[in-house]
Amino acid sequence: MRSTVLISLFAAGLVLAATMSSEASGQATVSGGSWSFPAGSTSNQVEIKVTGLPAGGLGASDVRIAFDSSVLEATTACTTGDMAGACNPNAPAGPARAAGFAIFPITSEPVVITRATFNCVGAPDSFTALTLTVVDDELIDGNLAPIPYSVQHGNVVCFAPATPTPTPVPTPTPTPTPVPTPTPVPTASPTPDPTASPTPVGQTPSPTPAPTPTPTPTPVGQTPSPTPAPTPTPTATPEPTKPAIGDVDCSGEVNPIDALKLLRFDAGLSVSQAEGCPEIGD
Q1: Any idea what DSSP says for residue 261?
Q2: pTM over cut 0.70
Q3: Which stretches of 4-125 are assigned E, i.e. beta strand?
Q4: Secondary structure of the chain: what % helix, strand, coil (to 5)?
Q5: How far is it, in rounded angstroms, from Cα 228 to Cα 40?
Q6: Strands of 44-51's sheet in order across
Q7: Where in the chain are the domains?
Q8: pLDDT tens profile 39-85
Q9: CATH 2.60.40.680 corresponds to the domain 2-159
């Protein structure tokens, strides 16, 4: 338990130092926080947050979370927090990834960009870092401009839960089982054998005739019906896969920036395109 407290205090000091450094440099901070859960517990929620945003607010983000799979196990309960978008835990061993966007920039802080759920599968007092990566530096404000940022990695401790003292269970006094009195069995009286009637002298007994079996007639000229052969089922020809669509800004991939530009276009707001990329709606 003492080692758990020391680890938690050390992690909190790192978070405070990184926050002061970020405020001094004028950058936004992407932080994973410090978390502690009982070893063996499930459905533990971790939040990834952004603070120190510029006046333009937060328009889009894309963050990856890596961790020690011998300590934590990711579940499918993963969201993009205050943003719209998608969160993919990939596999129980991670890494998890959350890509989100906002139609109207979010200016209130802190902004939760990921809510990931983990199970503590490590030994008691095991520890893992939450290593954060902003994918392709995709931390964008409401005007589609990149936001300068720093990363504050998080950590999780799976501490040993307190062992409760068992309550002694009183031993019940056994109740003697009464022995039943056997019921006497009456003796059965023997049944006398019937006396056979004598056959008169000089008279031959008549034999009992045996029944004659009736033959089953076989139909003449009847031909058995042939069994129809099964008709084979034709195999359906798979249709070719259509190419992916939605790359609005000609970046070579579909990401939250494409969704944000489409939403700004639908809202009647200005949308800037790279040179050589057609305008939206053409």
Answers
A1: H
A2: no
A3: 28-31, 34-38, 44-51, 58-66, 72-79, 84-88, 96-106, 111-120
A4: 10, 30, 55
A5: 62
A6: 72-79, 111-120, 44-51, 28-31, 149-152
A7: 2-159
A8: 999 999 999 999 999 999 999 999 999 999 999 999 988 898 999 99
A9: yes
